[in-house]
Amino acid sequence: MSRPTGRVLTLLELLQSGGTRTVAELADRLGVQGRTVRRYVDQLIDLDVPVESVRGRYGGYRLAPGYRLPPLMLGDDEALAVLLGLIAGRRAGLTTAQRTANETASAKIRRVLPRHLAGRLDTLLDALAFTDEPGTSDTAQPPDSAVLLTLADAVRHRRPVSIRYTDRADRRSERTLHPYGIVAHAGRWYVTGEDASRAEDRTFRLDRIGAARTLPGTFEPPSGPDPAERVLAAFATAEYRHRVTLRIHGTPAHLRTRLPATVATLDDPTGDRAPTAERWLRVRLHAERLDWLPPLLASLDRPFVIEGPDELRVLMAEFAERLTSYADRA
What we know:
The protein is built from eleven helices and twelve strands. The chain has 330 residues and is of the alpha+beta class.
């Protein structure tokens, strides 16, 4: 922005980024002389923006805490981040008062969004799903906004994309993906779809995608589970050292209190859909270790049959013996 008003708003944006900015730094960023910077600062003060002058060798200008929030200048990525944070917070189950503030804040930001950014945001929201485990992850890295928006556009228009992916073993590869949807789960972002080179459904972490590029053509997404259900199923069926198969007599609701969808899949051979009716359910899960399963199965307090592996039967018997020995102690 070359007009004086535009430079004043740019100055406000620079000050809002935090810290003290020297006159020389501000003059360089705005493309003006030092005395012009001082004149712009005076204009902000006239607008009740609390700008402080800092003296000394490293002095300059900074924003002081004010009695009210000054006008905010948000870039495209910043506006997108704020709105997604508000949406995720609403999904996390806020109180009524917080929910009202959340919705009004979202509406105010959306009302002043540039048309192109509002369209990109709507595209992303159409492609985005949440699981029931919002959570947080200390090791999660935020996805690149360009990657996120490219994938969202591909989901909406059913376009294949080329992605550069780095797996957990730090192996890099380029893949062609038919994306079905973007899912937020337990503090991370995922995209689920068909890996066209392998002709199989896959789930990829967005923070491991270095770049995404839309390709020519279209694809038809399959019927069946929605993207969130596909991500949960991918966790439950991920390849680990042990494959465990059980039959447990109980209700799906009770079993899910200990065996969520991210851990195990439930299969009802009877075809009974009643959520409160007890019957024999087949449970399948993959695990790197088995030692956590005996106490978990005991906590269900329901009859069960171990179909495999044999190592789990041994661990279960040993666990039962320990419990018996504890009960026999005087």
